[in-house]
Structures are given as structure tokens and as C-alpha cells.
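Example protein
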Amino acid sequence: MRIADRYIGWQVLYGTIFGVTLLTVVLILGQIFKQIRPLLVEQAVPLDLIGRFILLILPFSLMFTLPWGFLASTLLSFGRLSGNNELLGLRMAGVSLTRVALPALVVGAALSGLCSWLTGTAAPKAKLESRNLLYEAVKADPRALLDPGVIQSRFDNKRVYVESRDEDGVLHGIHIYEFSDDSRDAKPIGYLYAALVDLYVDAEKKQLRLKLADTYLERTEEGKAPAILQASELEPVLIDFSGTRTKKHKPSDVTNSRIPGEIRQSKKREADMRTELEEKSDLSDERIAELEYTHWKEQRWQKNLRIELHKRRSISMACLAFAIIGIPLGISARRRETSNGLLLSLLVAAGYFGILIFAQQFEKAPLPAVVAVLWLPNVLCLFLGIWLFRRASFR
């Protein structure tokens, strides 16, 4: 059986490498066109930064392409074994279906271990660093934020457009539009135009200081007529570029090894707030409301961390789950194995990851319910795979 084990194992592994490579390239190209436009258009960042961005999104892409590529390879490999009667020959030699499937199960278990490292360590670190790439580009050259001919949308509640820049660095024709917020339905509340602009960078405060000449300023308040101001000079106008760095701490940024510590720290902060609420009766209504809101945020943070941990563990088991269900499905789809195998892999992977995405929509649901839905795809693959294995074994 050693020859057969190597033959089946290498078939599954080679197919997985090819499938993962193809799927990863497609997914990375999609991420580049979706997320890298601000870096290319609004920042004109160097190519080495673009290369870093591609490397950083690679672990996140492999979280999904590795199980999917392995599933497609398993379906095609066992469909080919069945279609060429190689599986029948092994069965006639007295080898059970479970023994034939052992190499694929071993490869699936090894890939699940790799997925566990990707989801719990590599992907969170890469995701956090990738969100800081834009900030690094701005820090290296803040003046690039006001390059001519580009509508800059990286400032909080503002859109900035510069018509041109001369050799001395003086900007000509700057338009600054201010909105009520950053949503799509935001209302314009201010507009500023200046014919000439001298630009200074305050790196310590992370601000662009603008000295404006021939300035027109318009301010709009709801229910009131627009307030208009014209000035020959206006200084300084400050634009904060520290907001270009994502500061919000998310559960997806925390590695598995840090999640227990984060939960313990959150529980300690929650206990301190509860103690302050219980022991001090002279608190103002504003302080009580603030403590209650912060207490609720800590509880939500703990819940989201636990959900993230279960989601990663569930995804890391995807390769092993796909091996259990993919082998009998591949055998049953032996006719026209290529088209059937690819279609089955698409349906199974879409159903698997669709349930995981569906589970994340229930943020307000109790934690046990969310965890149950997160583990549902693996449970379904396990039981359905065992049932199909038994059917295929007794044929």
C-alpha cells in the first residue's frame, strides 16, 4: 500500500497546489483592484509598498483558497481514481475505502494545521500591518496627500482637490469640501477655495498647515443662509492626516495567543467599572451613563473575541471536513469528473463559507447560538461525509 499511498497523496497534494495557486491569484487580483486604488491614485506610493501589500493579503487569501483548492483536488483525484477503475482494483485486492482514503485524510489534517496557523497568527498580524501601509506612505511624504489632479478622500469628513503645483511647491487652486460625516448621505456644510497655497508639514502633530491667499470661504448651517467670507490671506488652515491611520482595535487584529489575555484584561476593566457603580453613590448622571456604556462595550468586546476565536478554529478544520465529504462525493461524481468535481467543489465551498458569513450577521444573538452556527458547517460535513462513506463502502 505504500506505493498506492504515495500515488494518491501526491495526486491530492499536487492538485491542491495548482488549485490554491490559481484561486489565490484570482482573489489577490480582486483585492488589489478593490483596496489598492487609493494607494495608487491618491497616494502615488512606490512599487515596493504595493509589493508589501500583496504579501500581507496573501495569508488572509490562503485562509479561504487553501480549503477550497484542497476540496477541488480531492473531488477530482478520487473521481479520476473511480473513473479509471483504479479504486475498483484496490477494493478487489481487499483494501477498504477508509484505508484508500487515508493519504487524503492525512493531507487534509496537515493542511488544517497550516490553516490554524494562518487564521490564528499570520492573518491577524498581516491584516493589522496592511491597514497601516497607507499611514506609512503618508508619514514618508505627507505632501503627496495634496498632489494635483486627484480628489483626496483620506481626510475625516473632507474632500480636497488641487488644480496644480509649481516648481517651488506652491499649490494653485485648492478646493476643500467639508461634509457632516463620512457616510454616503452626508450633507455638505462647508466649502473653501484659495488661489494660492503655501504648504507646511507638522510631522509631530500630524497636520498639514496651509497658508491661503485670495480665499473664498462658505459655511452652511441647517435652516440658515450660507455664511460667506472672502480674505486676501488666511492662516493657518489645518488638515489633520493622523486619521489616515486605522486606529480602531478589532477582534480580527488579535492573534489566538493574545485573545485569552485580552479577555482577562477586559473582564478586569469591567469589574472595576461595576465596583465604581456599586460603591459610589455620588456619581453624576453623565458619569453613570458613561460607565454603563463602557461596561456594555467591554462585554461586547469579550463576546466578539470569543466569536472570532471560534470562527478561526472552525475555518482551520475546513480542510479535514472537506476531506471527509469530498472523497465519497468525488467517487460518486466519477463520470465527467472534471466538470462535476469543479461544480461540487464550488457548491460545497459556497455553502460552507456562506454559513460562516451568515453566522457573523447575528451580533446580537446569544454567544452559544452564534458558536453553534459557526461550527455547523463542520458538523454537517462530518455527518454527511460519514453517511456517504458508508454508502460507498457497501457498494
